[in-house]
Amino acid sequence: MTAALSDMSLAVVPGEIHAVVGENGAGKSTLIKIMTGVYQPDSGEILNEGKAVTIRNTHGAQALGIAAMYQEPMVFPDLDVAENIFISHRNLGTFMNWGKLYQSSDELISRLGVSLDVRRAASGLTLAEQQTVEIARALSLNVKVLIMDEPTASLSAHEVERLLNIGKALKARGVAVLYISHRLDEIFRIADRVTVLRDGKHISTKPIAEVNHDGLVKDMVGRALDKFATKTKANEHGPLLLSVKNLSLDGVFRNVTFELHKGEVLCFGGLVGSRRTDVGLALFGISPSTGGSIELDGRQVVISTPQQAMDYGIAYVSEDRRKLGLAMTMPIYANASLASLKKFLRRFGFIDRAAENAMAEQYRERLSIRSPDVKIEVGKLSGGNQQKVMLAKWLETKPRLLIFDEPTRGVDVGAKAEVHNIIRELAKQGVAILVISSDLPEVMALADRVLVMREGQQMGIFDISDCSQERVIALATGQDQVASAA
Amino acid sequence: MIQFFRRLHPQSLRILALAIVLLLTVLFFASQIDGYFSPRMLNRIATSVAVILPIAIGQAMVVMTRNIDLSVGSVVGIAAYLIGDYLGTHPDVHPVMVVVIALALGAFCGAINGALVAYGRVPSIIVTLGTLALFRTYLVEYSGARSITTAGLPQWLVDLPQATVFSIGNFDMRLTVAMSLVAAIIFWVALSRLRVARKLYAVGSNPDAAVVAGINSSLVVFMSFVLSGMLAGLAGFMFLAKFGNITVVAGLGFELKSVAAVVVGGVNIFGGSGSILGVVLGTVLVDTIDNSLTRWAIVSEFWREALLGMLIMIAVATDTFMTRSFGRMKGKSE
Amino acid sequence: MMLARLKSWEGLLLIILIITVLANAALAPQFLTLQNQINLFQLSIEKIIVALAMTLIIINAEIDLSVASIMGLAACTFGILVESGTPAGLAIILCLMLGIVAGAFNAFWIAYVQIPSLVVTLAMLIMYRGIARVLLEDRGITGFPQWFGDLGQKAFLGPFPLGMIIFVVLLVVLGLVLHRTGFGREVFVIGTNAEVARFSGVRVARVKTILFIISGVISALAGLLYAGRLASVRGDAATGFELDIITMVLLGGVSIFGGRGTIIGVLFSILIVLNLRNGMALVNVTGHIQTAVIGILLIMSVLGPNLAERMRSTGLAKASA
What we know:
The structure holds three protein chains of three kinds.
Chain A lengths: L16 E5 L6 H8 L10 E3 L2 E3 L4 H6 L2 E4 L11 H6 L11 H14 L15 H14 L4 E5 L7 H16 L3 E5 L3 H7 L2 E6 L2 E7 L5 H15 L12 E10 L3 E9 L3 E6 L5 H8 L7 E6 L2 E3 L4 H6 L2 E4 L3 H5 L6 H5 L16 H14 L16 H13 L5 E5 L7 H16 L3 E5 L3 H7 L2 E6 L2 E7 L5 H9 L1 H7 L1
Parallel strand pairs in A: 1-6, 1-7, 4-5, 5-6, 11-16, 11-17, 14-15, 15-16
Antiparallel strand pairs in A: 2-3, 7-8, 9-10, 9-12, 12-13, 17-18
Chain B lengths: L1 H6 L2 H23 L6 H26 L7 H18 L5 H25 L4 H20 L11 H5 L4 E5 L2 E4 H19 L4 H8 L1 H6 L4 H27 L10 H11 L11 H18 L9 H31 L1
Antiparallel strand pairs in B: 1-2
Helix pairs in contact in B: 2-13, 3-8, 3-11, 3-12, 3-13, 4-5, 4-6, 4-11, 5-6, 5-11, 12-13, 12-14, 13-14
Chain C lengths: L1 H26 L6 H10 L1 H15 L7 H17 L4 H25 L4 H20 L3 E2 L4 H8 L1 E3 L2 E2 H19 L1 H11 L1 H6 L4 H27 L2 E2 L6 H11 L11 H20 L4 H34 L1
């Protein structure tokens, strides 16, 4: 078991925006959870104004003036904006003074330089507005340290501008902001210092003036680059399988166009929240597209349910094992056969348990799932082995098109290489593969072609021979536009 | 137009709709039943609402925290019977003291429910289904098949249903009705003005966020059950006063009626929202239909339950569709 | 580990069962006779039949509170039909179809409109019961054909009455469906995590619809048996049975959150409840106290494992600290 985070040193200073960057799994979320008292560190200490403190729980963090803004905003949909802001206050008297409440909230909101009706119910707010509410809440508590976790991940360009301005406003008010983001362009615009994390280790902390874009990217992906061999040339591939033209889903993504051949690996690059997953879900019939066309083997098809997608030979390996991928309290064999249960049914719908077991055993061997037998609950396996069970489930459907969503999220380095080998093997056997990944080295190691998305739009599609990590990052963050505008 | 509806809080919209439905219902029955607008009918409905209203308010607070209290009917029975029994042997107890005892009895029953749900982590549906039977059994055992009769009650209690606070024309404002309304107003003001009470909404609206905001969710859920029990105790007192004769089946079926009133009154069954004003309207609507059907010649009064069931379903379905189309409107605008 | 725990729950039930049976036998020597055991089953035969269907529903992470009302509605409909001259055989078929319709109506709201089953079936508990009352008002209907009453009361095959045979057949059939067929597997997966099931191509709405229809038709069947056994029907027939039924299922180790449970566990819990009631009757405990004991058992069956779980987790936290 490797440490999620080790030897981490970080100093936050009032009136400073301190950016923390790193890839998925670099240890950013662990850092937040330690600072807000959700996790306790195994070693090391936290100093507040020079004194060592222990943050036992979220209360403790609040008392020290540390607040976090989570990726999923913690608002109460049924309460109005003003009440959401002041919900944690304990010394406002027994009775609600709505007039004063609205007035104070109005002041707080306007201090952030935004306009928002504080009498509106939070259920009607956009994500960006909900974030504003959270920031105002932190401000009202006289927060000293505000942690923002990927605050711009799902915001539009306009909303990002507004958030960055709020960040500057906070800085001016003497708040220390810990700004966690993938988006390097934002970091260069607002951060004073930047810390890089990689694989749970502290790589560097430097003033922003001393780093440049390329240097930062190198620090972020550094070792990972030589870890996996980067492809330089696309593999040979078979005939055309899938042709997607102008695929759109109202208000989510639009005009996604690509072709995918048998035996080819197409990677969807981009930031978290760039709507790549939604394209995958549309192809799998979970949230069907509202525009554009999908052709399989040259014939136009309509996919409106997962069953239809599966009948066409499409499989979708979800990014969220716990919520969408596996029945955690059920045994390996039941999960492995779930998507292809029909194959194991005999007379009167009885399951052929012997055949089912044999199948599961076969995958346990082939994918080297580390477990004494296939009757173990999948919840008891490690992340990597769970991922393999999920793979087994979809491989057993003998898919023609396999969609992987973040295939190695929360998986250790060894298992990651194994999963990559399985994907390559599948491609060699002629399966068309679509990989959605935020992990750039992974994209570079697997892809024959790369499609980059940003805010629901296709930014470009190119051959692996024309691809570099820098180019993907540039397209995904809109850095190229900034560069060309400058 | 759409802009107007979007600005309007969905809750206000819900209450507006409810008021219109209530008005139409009343007009409908008025056209069907002779002398419907008589003070007698009004008094009849008002005294009936007076018993159910406190239970519905308590139920509303429980539902707001994403729970349900199916034991209220049995609590009403226990409170009504035990107080009647107690008054039979202690006829000189001060009336105010009697009400306090009723509240305490109810609160005690509620505390049992609340402790099991909030601290024992047993789903409320299971706990209150269990205590629904338990409390009733206790009553049956305690009573030994005896009934409370008016003869055993002190005179002030027997006269209470006729006690009138004031009269407008032929309509008399009965004391029990006034008590119920006062309770409703207290809770209405409390839920919208009292800072502590707002936690009910917070816990039901987003339990995870409530934890992050430092709200003691278990305590809030516990208290909602205690209050629900307390108000059921008050209803038990009213029940005793209204009927005088109490058997062990007193309050049977009130749990369903209160859930109906709450759901029809626009309290979100998934927790987090609802207003006492809506609950009052919901209770009046449910009870008006109930009482009017017995007077409607065309349709048998046995339709009451069937209509009640349909009414709940319509209310829930309307809420579901409304929330979803609101969600969709929002999704498109982004 | 998980399997071991499930087994231990059933092991515990088995031990309790043996104790109650032995206690009964010690209290009354005639207890273990076949006829006495059959009588024991007959007293609650309708409830235990419906409990089998409820087992599948709760494992699917749903609940059906309307079963007792469907029982009453079917019984009353039968009464009205027979009274108006419909041949009893045809009336039985019509009532079973009514059960299917009632179950399908529940399923429509639950599976397709996606309103929680707790709310839907609570409303339907009131509504179906209300319709039963509309049909019979405050009358009772008697005078069913002799053979119909006999089906409910008399031995049908060997010493066994029809209800018991239906129970055993359903026990075997539903047990096999739940634990051995693809459909049963889907029931478990949906109960464990409905989203995982959907993302694996399981037709979640269809499975739920089938379950509620099964529940509806079995409830209607149980209602007919009830009418036959009592040889009369009233509007309040079978009122409140849902509590006993759900108690038996949960006591059998079926998780109220779905995904866990076995038909064998439910069988054990049914036997325990029947024997416990019998034993309590032997020592002169009234029916109401019996109900209260069952109510306490219901709460304990969830509270017990919860407290044990919490103790275990705090123990673990201490051990790791």
